[in-house]
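Follow-up to my earlier ticket, as requested here are the two runs.
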Amino acid sequence: MADALLKAYPNAKVVLNVRDIDPWLASMETSYYRILAWKPLQVLASIKYVRAPRLERKTSASAFLTYAQSNLAQHTDLLRLILADWTGGDWQNRRKLREEFVKHYAHIRAIVPKDNLLEHRPQDGWGPLCKFLGKPVPDEPYPRVNEGDSVFNIHVTVFWIVAGQLVVKFVAPVLVVAFAFWYYRK
């Protein structure tokens, strides 16, 4: 995809978000792989037509939930598809994930002209990024929201909201009918 974007925008400035490989792999374990291995989500994702809820407030969590409006099975399939793309087809192959990580960085460095490339680490903050883009430094702290546990916790939240909706939609009516039946039999 990077090749196509650079072909379409040959003078584009490119920010390569640099991460050390071992912490990145650990983050993948605590996000993508943990999500895909979580049994309750697998069970809920196997139920057709279960949809993630819509939230009115715009937060990072609500943005994710809006994205996850398709059924949860499609979402977990998407996570597997992303991993398969990064691993050459074998989404569970951690060795291949490591290799592709290294290849990706080498490829970007090879195809982007040096003057158009910023290798940015989140711990560098706003300074180098804003200088590279010719923008003023914001008065707010540099965001730090893409951590493996936070990604997993968003999925846990989606799970409980959807599970709650299923209870309200299917279990509550059964309980109301059972109570009415019991009450009128007295």
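Run two:
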Amino acid sequence: MYLTSTDPSTGLPLSADAIQRVLFIASSIHVYSIPPLTSTKGYTASQWTADNNKRQIFTARLRILETAIPSEDGQGETVNTAVLLEDPSNGQLFAAAPYTDASAVEQVLDSSRFFAIRVVGEGGRKAILGIGFEERSEAFDFGIALQEVRKVQGIDKNAVPLGSRKPTGKAPLAEKMPEKKDFSLKEGQTIHIDLPRAASRIKDAEFGTSAKSKGFNFIAPPSGGLHTDGTLALLPPPASAQDVKAENRRSIRRKPPELQLAADLGFDDGEFGEFQ
């Protein structure tokens, strides 16, 4: 079952009731002695594999091992996870990388098969080693297993990357978020809106005064005149066509026929009187 009698994270012997679980295993991976990090961007595997894999140390077996240690009072347990590099022939531990934060394992910039891991030796000494998988599918499964560990154990995903500047010991300042304001009306509250009626009347009066002072002439009212109460008298509406025709017929009936003389009709009596 590839179980250990000591805690890989601390090196201390395990109690009899400790429970271990293998989360991932790769039978053959390549281990490299990598140069110090020269850029804050991250590691590149091309430097490890240069000169015909000159920096390769040996080929190891890799396991992700989870260890649950019950507390002394029996009310809970402590769960530790470590990435183990072991001798594939006899299972002897070569190096252990306790996975206490996301920066313990970092993927390189130029390949999906290579990672840099932070191993811890006797006395707490730390070193950075490079590992490379032969198959991309194994490297993918390795990353998925570490993702599940972070999710279950609540490991910080925004940890300081490997090889970056040392922590200052000061806790990072939390980003100040703008405070949300509630503008909704509470129960019983009302809104009063003052319409500028008085101001509009004043402006109208000012406009009339200024118009007079500037010499504007307004159109006079119609010639209908005013009533005694001061209101405007309206003109009567024009007569219709039927009323005009009826009035003309009545005037013709009332007019007496005019007497016409013979001369007006073209006859000339002269001195002869009537026709002989």
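The only thing I checked on run two: The chain has five helices and seven strands. Let me know what else you need.
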